[in-house]
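User: Quick sanity check before I run a bigger batch. Here is a single chain. Can you write out its predicted 3D structure?
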Amino acid sequence: MKQKIQYMTGVALLGLTQWACALQVPGPVVDGDWLVKNKAEVQVLDIRPNQKSFLLAPQYETDKKTGKKVLVELGGHIAEASLVDPRTTRVERTFGTLKVKYMLPERAEFEKMARKWGVQAGRPIIIVAAGQDATDMNDAARLYWQFKVYGEDNIALVNGGTAAWLAEGREVTVAASKTVDGNWVGKSERSEMLATSDDVEKAIASKSSQLVDARNTSQYLGLSKRDYVFGYGHLSGAKNVSSDLLVTEAGDAARLLSAATYRDIYKASGIDPQAAAITYCNSGHLAAGNWFVLSEILGNKQTRLYDGSMHQWTLEKRPLESVARAL
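Assistant: Done. Predicted structure follows.
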């Protein structure tokens, strides 16, 4: 009996040692070289809107002038990656009598999602977007934010996603991944990472937080809107930093910029990149890009994401500012 207890204790200690020795990501963003080197020790989540492309070979054309092979249809995936549909990572939540779409799932529900994707506790999570435009990178940033809200810190994005991976001449597969249910466990919600409608209202009244609007200029000014937003314009005092400004789409992939460039972008937009901020958009999707840059790349931990964004704000009939008064 004593030997059995000693054996079980040894196994438990070994497990704790392996947990303690798990690879730690070097930062919020990694590149293809790092992923190749550490592939065996991480788990890859491939998030893309075109789910069929996961099992289709990438399509190329040859540029007649340069003779260079150019990607025209993204396809394939990094071997053993688990496929995530960005349209299913958010849910409808009820606040009083209002049903608000596109929200952060409660912890238990998000745990079920992560386990379905095969996410294992104690292993680094690497998120790979399609990587062809800013929207793709926001898919990855939003999923990253949701994991962080529920306590996951050993997580990173691949700069440029699958598009960059292909552009660098790396191999992809079209074989279906064999996903085994994971055992990832979330922690208590980090409320300091998100803002509610009431938080935003207080921030507007007290001017205690900068408001960063991630939508395009037309929507910000109130000249156009999405069909699930029920008013034109922006939150009072908000400054506009469109998510398109946060990546470079020139060339073969949508890649993130340098920290110095981001600081200049925010300063030029009238935003102090180190002061308290709340990011928002139409539904909390594009806002994840600004949150990721401010909080994770620039280290501003006073940054919160307004999950309900314009969808919830206008459902609640709260006031907006707009140049298009007649709309």
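The longest strand covers residues 98-103.

User: Great, the batch can go ahead then.
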